[in-house]
Amino acid sequence: MKLGEMLGRLLYPLLAARRKVSCINLSIAFPDLDDKQLAELNKKHFISMGQALFEAALGWWGSEKQIKRLTHIEGHEYLQQAKNSPRVLLLGSHFAPLEIGGRIIAQHMPLHAVYRPHQNELIEYLVAKQRTKNCGKAIPKTNIRELIKSIKSGFPSWYATDQNYRLKGSILVPFFGIEAPTNPGTSRLAKMTKALVIPCIAVRLLDREDSREGYLLRFYPPLDDFPGDDILQDSRRLNQIIETQIREFPEQYLWTHKRYKYYKEENRDFYAEFPDNLDNTDNLGSDNLNKSGKSCK
Question: For a tag on the chain, would you pick the N or C end, based on fewer CB atoms within 10 A?
């Protein structure tokens, strides 16, 4: 973790483009932060991502005993429901300890996880191999048929829809008050497979006001009356759940992802429209954007 912190502090000034993307996202999510608080949270995020690189190695090659010693579980009854349900879809989200989180969940159930394939073929091969080894099956997000098969076969399947989505069927759903292209797949999958949807997260406990050390694996109550009759309302509900999780562990969420890319209109880069100083944002048409002059240089 110390090495990860050093790496994160080193990357913060070097990765200017990603630092700006992260700053813009944080400004939207936390409009009450002043310049100093915003910069401090952004630095903590880069530290968290630096630590995540070392956590990935621990998740891939760490011993079962070591990882169990570092794991703390909340929501045991919901974990038991996930294990006992004939069909379950785990609602995930992109927090920094993603790799070790998958390994932790897989210690309790035969996990099948959906992931975004890497463009580099060698990296893709290595990542898919390790995830399959540690979890049970790694399913590329393009292979939805395989995901449906896994759910119907009784394998708990991890699925996250909190990243930018511009493919066929995407819908605009508020995320921290700003409409973002969103994948409504969770609602559709639940309806198609009649799976129980249980939110869960795996986050780092280091440097928090918590006497425990290691990682928190938290399961939430299954979603009642889900899916509903309105797919937009279903997606709003899921985004609100993820927002609540993020507010508790803000530095650990993946803020360097362009969640609002192509906001509102086709071929419109949301991030390119921000000047270095975020004071001039009226043209974006939202009262939720910060207008206090925060700098995202």
Answer: C
